[in-house]
Amino acid sequence: LASGNYDIVSLQEVWSDSDYQYLRQRVGNVLPFCHYFYSGVVGSGLAILSRYPIVSAFFHAWSVNGYMHRIQHGDWFGGKGVGMAKISVNDQLVHVYVAHLHAEYNRQCDDYMAHRVIQAHDTAQFIESTRGQAVLQVLAGDLNTEPGDLAYRVLVTSSKLKDSYDRKAIGSAVGTNECHTNSYTDPTAAKQQPNGKRIDYVMYRIGDNYDGRLLEHRLPLPGRVPGQTFSYSDHEAVYAKLILKKSSSTSTIQNLIACSSGKEESCDRMSREESQREAVLALRESVAICSESLKQLESHRRSYTLMAIGVIIVLINLLELQA
After folding, report:
1. I want to staple 37 with a disulfide (CB 3.0 to 4.6 A). Which of 22, 53, 59, 121 is the partner?
2. Of 274, 149, 152, 164, nearest to 220 (Cα)?
3. Domain boundaries, the chain
4. Average pLDDT over the chain, rounded to whole?
């Protein structure tokens, strides 16, 4: 990070304040503007480092984030949410968002799917409502959801963000977690899926009156820390390079001429309608998942109530015997 090759860095799982302060000190010469999003019991783990000034920052906590009684799954204690930093780049505002959705833990028996779906929808709404006059919006983080999963579809269709990963351009599947080249990957998982799974993303949305394109998407770090036998993290870093420029009056006139011909307008309308259909389908599926989750919660509530009553009865009997 201190190499100076990056303009903005998004970090997750920085649980220790001392680690954050250490990182901040080491990269201060090239990334002098930093913000850590404090939240929950142990902190959100989210931080943004920037070459450009951070004008303001805000943290939006999610209303649903795991269960307090499942201590082995520590997501609840992190008080997770989505952090936003307004960054001034050449006198233009760029909104950078960082998030870390609830972990999956068990794909075959996923008790937290509804949590991630709600978090994804909440994040999409937050991004849309804070768009403002930003020339660019970027979401970078560990979303714990693979392309095609419901949470991914809800986030992309509702926020209108574009995934910076393009398999056609890259030529092969690229995973960011549980890759066989990572030292922290379980050997069994590496054999089952050598390329790993892609759950870490850089997504973007270009503002109105601006043209832009993605120049590069890659995993920038080597498989091992130089001189060591271990990797930098159990997740791979993701790098995306974007270029923006203000739309010229010529291109605006050309767009108006194209629209007047009806061809481009028809294509745009069809594209919008298709996006709306995908968003509606994803939201309907989300409602079904959340409804089923509510039924399970009601069943669990009854079970816990009966267990509590049983424990109280046993304690009362023990007290009577001792008396």
Report:
1. 59
2. 164
3. 8-247
4. 89
